Amino acid sequence: MTTITTRTVEYPADGLTMIGHLALPTGADRRPAVLVGPEGTGLSDVERRRADALAELGYVALAFDLHGGRYLDDPEEMLARCMPLLADPDRMRGIGHAALGVLRAEPRADPDRIAAVGYGTGGAIALELGRHGVNLRAIGTVNALTTGRPGEAARIRCPVWAGVGSEDPIMPPAQRDAFTAEMQTAGVDWRLAVYGGALHAFHHPPVGHPVRPGVGYHPQHAQRAWRDVVDLLAECLPVTEDLGHDPGKHAGPGH
Q1: Contact between residue 142 and residue 112 where contact means Cβ atoms under 8 Å apart
Q2: CA atoms within 13 A on the CB side of 245
Q3: Is 14 left (phi over 0), alpha (psi -120 to 50) or beta?
Q4: Cα–Cα distance between 64 and 48 in angstroms, integer?
Q5: Which of 46, 80, 242, 247 has the most CB within a 10 Å radius?
Q6: GO MF terms on file (predicted)?
């Protein structure tokens, strides 16, 4: 397994001091880089370990923050923070651009070879970066079939992969259809993976706090979704290391 180094990084965004998690592969050369966006609850050990796993594969990875260093384990508090955010593309883009700036400024990161992978709210932010015309090599999302302002998806300049559980009540079939119609109309190179029987946040190991109805972990599909994400990166942002397993399977709730 590749030796990695990690550190926290502080940066301003959305009127807060964000605390991200940067993971670097061994060596001193420039490497392709990946932004990793968390679910609406915020940055946790799950995303940190995914960033670490990507560094083990040879990527520079930044798991970015949503809530100024806080993890929102109260569903009502999480919704009160995330619903207005998800309704405001400019705020989402601001959070994404701030994290992207940190990643681009890292000397080990190749600023011309960056992908964005996000879960839930973090995935919506990744998509908004694409809709804003950011030069990304790939966008991968899970539980983030969000649609944008009319016509802006045409600015997406890279392949988009999206994963969703078939039984996700937060991303129902009508939302899937709206998302795929937007991507298709815009001429985006898109793919949608529907994981049979899976609920919302199926990729996220169980947590020790209340969750919204319709949320549930599906270990097998979590592994499959991770492999799909790594395959997307291997195709669009290749490195020579072997593909990995989903570190989230063994991660704690991260708070």
Answers
A1: no
A2: 7
A3: left
A4: 9
A5: 46
A6: hydrolase activity
Is the torsion defined by CA of 4, 10, 13, 14 positive or negative? positive
φ, ψ at 19 (rounded to 5°): -125, 100
Q: Is the pLDDT of residue 105 over 60?
A: yes
pLDDT at 207: 87
CB 217 within 8 A of CB 201: yes
Q: For 50-98, what is each residue's pLDDT tens digit?
A: 999 999 999 999 999 999 999 999 999 999 999 999 999 999 999 999 9
Domain 5-237 has CATH 3.40.50.1970: no
- Rg (C-alpha) for the chain, rounded Å, is 16
- Rounded to whole angstroms, the Cα distance separating 136 from 232 reads 13
C-alpha to C-alpha distance for 217 and 201, rounded to whole angstroms: 7
In percent, the amount of the chain with pLDDT more than 90 equals: 89
Q: Where are the domains of the chain?
A: 5-237
Q: pLDDT band at residue 208, thresholds of 50, 70 and 90?
A: confident
Tell which phi-psi region holds residue 120, choosing left (phi > 0), alpha (psi between -120 and 50) or beta: left
